[in-house]
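Please, why this fold?
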Amino acid sequence: MKVSVLGATGTMGGLVIKALLQEGGFAITGKVSSRDNIEVMFGCSDVIIDFSCPFATEAMLRYAVSSRSHIPIVIGTTGLSKMHRDLMGECATYSPVFCSPNMSLLVSALNVTVHLLAKIMDEDFDIEIFESHHRMKKDAPSGTALMLGRTIAKARNREFDDVANFVRYGIIEQRKRGEIGFSVQRSGAVVGTHEVSFVGGHESIKIRHEAHSKEIFAKGAVQVAKWLVRQNNGLYSMDDMVRDTIAPLIDGWSRECFGSSDHKH
């Protein structure tokens, strides 16, 4: 499979190239930086993996839309806006497009778990999302933290913008029912930590994911690329890939633990 990497000169781009070489079965036909001619990728690739920056991702998507490219695109760039998401939607008319702020399969499992917990626990349980990253990370909260918050809001049938609280300073109002609070830390060389807390009046539960190496995101992106090239045109997220991987496992686990849903009377 021929792969081009956008953002190839960056840390994540280098790790993606390393992961592709370790995986085998890939020919790296394009190593493109954020300031190179992006069009060259579209003439030599079966799939594009993007870990660049918002302006380079925008340029790639605009070219893909204008050329009606059919090449699958995997996007791991963070700090993207609604404008980028709209462009992805246009691009997905002609090709499969995958976007996730976090390519870790375990983070996908975390996302599935918080969705389930939010369904189980009513709004008497307060929810807090904490994330910590290295001092060089520019966007806050992280894309993964926002993804988790949106998942929780959706599970509770609430609009995310109505329940998200990003600012607490000085004299603040009493916490609103259903509010999702966010806390951010930027320090040292932390790869990435995300923790979601459900806190009730008499009990609480926390679930936490820690990334110990950025290689997990690169390896995840390679697995996504292998999955994406088999999909039809459309816009995909990690939730879609989870349906093909984690969901069958959960169904099997459910049947093992609770038995068949078919009862004899």
About this structure: The first strand starts at residue 2 and ends at 6. The radius of gyration is 20 Å. Helices lie at 11-23, 54-67, 82-91, 105-120, 143-155, 160-163, 215-228, 238-258. The CA atoms of residues 146 and 182 lie 9 Å apart.
